[in-house]
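pinging the channel bc i need a second pair of eyes. not urgent but kinda urgent?? the chain im working w is below, pasted from the shared doc
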Amino acid sequence: MTEQLFRYETSGLWLKGNVHMHSTASDGGKSVSELAELYGEAGYDFLCLTDHWVAGRTDLGGSTGPLILGGVELHGYDRQGFFYHVVCIGDFEGIAVGMDFEEALKTARSQGGILILAHPHWTGNTYEQAKRHGFDGVEIYNAIAHWMNGKCCGLGYWDAMLEDFPDVSGFAVDDTHLRSDGQIWKSGWVWVNVKERTPAAIIAALRKGNFCASTGPQILSLEVNAEKLHVRSTAVKFARIVGEKYAGRSILPNEILSDKQDAFTEFELTLPEEYDYLRLEIEDAHGGRAWTNTLFTKCIP
């Protein structure tokens, strides 16, 4: 029998990272060292190098700069004629431009890769296409797509995938290119919770879903006691519990605060039992949002 397990353990270190980034090895405008310097100055702890069809390798870097994790972005048509972009996190051998797209996905998965459906709104994928190929995650916010034409949101795809695959994770990313001064960056990221600052610990947290995606606020702790979820965060205006289809509800400031306050940093909510899955979303005064993955996993670790 499948057991429901609370996904989050948030007593460790929170590390901030961008898991979709391009360098001059493909179509990016900055070298890896330039990207590491820029993101290090912006307070990032790790980056995933995901050039198009060029597999990056994990690099521990210096003692003060961000860790560089390996990865690659694949794109192409599957054997049903559907077009995809897929970010794969991990160190890979045997992936090269010109490979059959599905064969490349299989190669990445066989080497322990984390496979993320990239910018499905921008690509023009359907919800049914998003459910193919057993993706581990999906980009729910993509900054460069936001900058290009506004097709940056993958929340609908995520919920469609969660209805069939409740352990799919949601990622907010930059998809860094920085080929011109107008391209935005440091706009979408993830916070992973780990016991130590190592590539292995970060990969394990990403695989488990022990992270939160964000475009602004940060979730600081998540604890479950009986049927209640206790949350601490940076200052937010709204919190929402989200389930399948129309299921969910908002927590408004007037439920928690006095009339003189307009933001909150701590709250508790009762978890509904009837939802097929549960995730949490918070929103700050600037419209920035942060998302947990599904709070409970049906996979036995």
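so The chain has seven helices and 19 strands. and The longest helix spans residues 32-41. — does that match what u expected or am i reading it wrong
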